[in-house]
Predict the structure.
Amino acid sequence: MKGDEEATGGSTEVGERRRYELDDQGFDEVPKKYRKFYRRWKGPGDELAPNEIFCPVCRIVIRSPREIRPGDRIYCMACMTRLRAVRGPDGRIVAEVEYT
Amino acid sequence: MRDFLDAYSIQYWLESCPQGYLEGTEYGHRPGEKEPELLLDDPTLREQAISTTVQLVVGERCALAASSGLINAAPDEASRRFLATQTLDEARHVEIFTQRLYDLGVKKSELEDVIDAFANPNLVKFAEILLEKVDKKDFVAGVVGQNVILEGMAFHVFEMMHATSEKLNPKFAHTLSGTIADERRHVGFGENRIGSLIQAHPEKKPEIERMQRDMSYYMLATFADRFRDTASREEVQRMRREAGSDGAGSGTWQGANLADLEPEEMERLLADTILGEFKKRLARIGIEYQTPARP
């Protein structure tokens, strides 16, 4: 995914990242070859996996083939927003929008 | 880093939208899908569906006028191209919701009279505030009003309607899901484009904040009118029973089971969700959210 291209530089954590096999979860709002990198958010109780991050702009879940770490840059193709992963106050990894 | 609009192209829009989630649809839903018979046969429910759909048509006509009007006010070519695709999205929304009125039995010759009769005056005022900015070719205020406020509102209204329709009215739910997908791009453009422009035009902030407060007030007034003049929870439950749906696993939005809520509780949930999102979105682009009066 575009996110994967960008989810390399900037990570502030060390150690090997876990890798994930991605499957198509029915998100049809981006061109076919990118669909497996996204899924619909199921609401407030939706638990995100370590390779997933919530896009605060268009409220979908972005999925990476690798564990997401703070500092990773991620692209949300559904709303064309550039994001950066940061650790939130509660310790969870969240996305911050980067305007250019 | 490249400008975010570099990633956007008409080709991307074609692959995502007409060749993606809209492929094979008919006025936004699957071919052959119909409105539920119960809705068509029950005069109260039918009139309520017509009234709700009229508000969608009014909102989308406003969005069509705004997005097309902003094309020539845009400061760059990429924004003009984006707004051209948004114009087509909004025109499609006007068409599919108008088609729903026809599907609900409104005659073509009566369309404008029905819209005039059911259009909520507060929603009309909401639209007028936005279109005044567009008429003045005020791109920054126009995009905030259109792509952050109007689209931000539509996004959540459609999501909530989708949750209530998924089991009861798959045709309408499918129509809504395509519009929700469109709104994702529109709110993304609003935040991304204005996030950088507002830094260059800080003098615009007070005027935009006033516009947000006024538009938010009329949005809340529209919700108040709609939810306080709606079918009771008992009527909706009756419809659900007659449609053969027990509601299990359906109708959940923002963590709430909508079937359990009274209309005023739904109004509060919708209003609070939208205003909460406005606050977050505006903070991200450097605009201070103004709390509107509660109607």
Notes: Chain B has one domain: 17-284.
